[in-house]
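Exercise: predict the fold of this chain.
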Amino acid sequence: MKYKKIALYAIILLFSNPIFGQKYFFEGDPQSVFEEGNFKQNYNTGLFFFNTNQWKIAIKFFNRCSELTRKKTVHYKPLVWSYIYTGKYNLAKKLIPKIKNKKHNQIIRLLIKDLQKLPKRKKVSKDEIDRNYKSKKDLIKKTRENIIALAKLKVIDFGS
């Protein structure tokens, strides 16, 4: 009986801490990273603030990444999303072409168009933005599948 309790506590302890999720920790002084850090340090610090929903601070670090290099573009995607989450849609639109994934670019453009149609005084939450993005992504996927299905039908009837 005693060993069963210990095993039960061990299992509870094991599963109470998520193994599959990633937690972001930041140690050090962000100001010194900003002033003296290299691209990777600023990028990782920016990701920390992005993943903790502190987008204004993340924007600062991602913009610093832009100052440090012209070759790397990996920081533009979280930078655009930070601008979207803070409601700075025009700044996000300017940076969309710098993201390499063209499909992602198209969906973000559609998302920003919808967000700009909303009244200026309405504050849009991150969850609403994410839901809107997912619905646009699903819509494009379904449209693509429908086009492929229609093309298959046309090819079958081609000779008749």
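Check your answer against the key: The mean pLDDT is 82.
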